[in-house]
Amino acid sequence: MKRQPRAFLIATICLAVIFSAISCGNPKGFQDKNNDGEEASEISCKWGYVDQHGSMVVGFQFDDAWEFSEGLARVKSKGKWGYIDQSGEVVVDFQFDDAGDFSEGLARVKIGSKWGYIDRSGEVVVDFQFDDAGDFSEGLALIQSDTDESYSAIYIDKNGNSVIKLSNYYCTHFSEGLAVIRTESEEGWKAGYIDKNGDMVIEPRYDQAAEFSEGLAAVSVDGTWGYINKSGNIAIEPQFHWDASFPYDRATFSDGLACVFLGDDIGYIDENGDIVIELRAQDAYSFSEGLALVEVDGYHGYLDKAGQWAIEPQFTQSWPFSEGLAKVGIEGEYGFIDMEGNVVIEACYDETRGFSDNLAPVRK
Predict the structure, then answer these.
(1) CB 3.0-4.6 Å disulfide test: which of 31, 70, 161, 285 passes with 293?
(2) What is the pTM (predicted TM-score) of this model?
């Protein structure tokens, strides 16, 4: 439940933060003031970080905070974004109007209306010049620039050089050496794939297409989904019909299995297209760390790869596993369970995000 508390509730909530310090994992000797000398009542409803035991490692002090990536996490304070290390030390000062996670050693950051890229020391390595910018993936990042309006898609390298420029295409990031492109034809919008030279290696003939994962990509023709290999050959015949609301990126292979719709059921297929799990369910996610999040009759549980319930459906809100723990919602607050379904970090936070580098952002 991501919410902003009403003003008349702030004092009550802040008292709850103080009195729940032990159960919610605040560090021993937690002080009433932060490093800036602010009173505790002024720093409540903030983000901090806990470890996998629920102990507070970085105290509540940020207006927003995200998972660690490559050893650094983006955090927000007083309207600006910066980056901290795992001890909570600010290593890149709060100066950006927007920011992304580090990926392949660089992070996209925004000042004013323009995006650029910094390295882990905070040095600008690609100047602020882009109207939009994506994360680096396989050495390339997708950007948009008013100075190159004749191109609908531009990929840059880590020096900021444009290495692929495409007109009349809409593209995604690269995955396993290929990127999805979409273009308009006489038959409507069609999807295909380009390689890292910008060459079309799989012609745009699909109505929809997902990124490659474990050597296969989900594609649809006339509403029926199947899978192709990197040569563009059919690997699993089109036969699956997915609800329009189903995010088709969940159909990518993970841990050797992919989620598919089977009429009123949901199932998982292997790389040969054989159905290995089938059950009556309302929603399902890809496998992560050997377990898949599945919703049955309004409750969430976790299946193992044999199709058995590792954790019986019991939660009304839950998320996939990350580093052995999964976020769950219990009575409007959030905590974490282990892979046996035990609550290992009490559900006492207004909001949390997933574990990465053994730490998770939490908000009180």
Answers:
(1) 285
(2) 0.84
